Amino acid sequence: MKKRQSKSQSEVATLSESSIISNVEAAMGADDVAEFLKEFPDFGPDLLDNFNHDVERARDAAVEHYAGCYNSAADFARTITEQAIPIPEQLRGYIDYGAMARDMERVDIYVIETGCEKAHIFWVG
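RESULT FIELD:
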């Protein structure tokens, strides 16, 4: 039978201090998460999941890389294409914005859908 070693008072104090610090850090993290979710209620929870609950990275994406809310990723592709170049009316029906959006999602954007015809678009940063 092993004899249980007792910890010195300084070891116990150090353990208590580190426990308190980690509890305070967790509480501060919870406050940051709550503030983020209040600031971005539409897509905040999904964005946090996307960034493994890293509030700083999620906030950076929300502030620096948010392109807007569209009916779909295809609607976003159509919008930015038509803003960039004039599309003659007789060619509009031949452009596959759905395919463009799928290509964009591979490299350029990520999409968080929060409802029917509600797609939040973020540029990959």
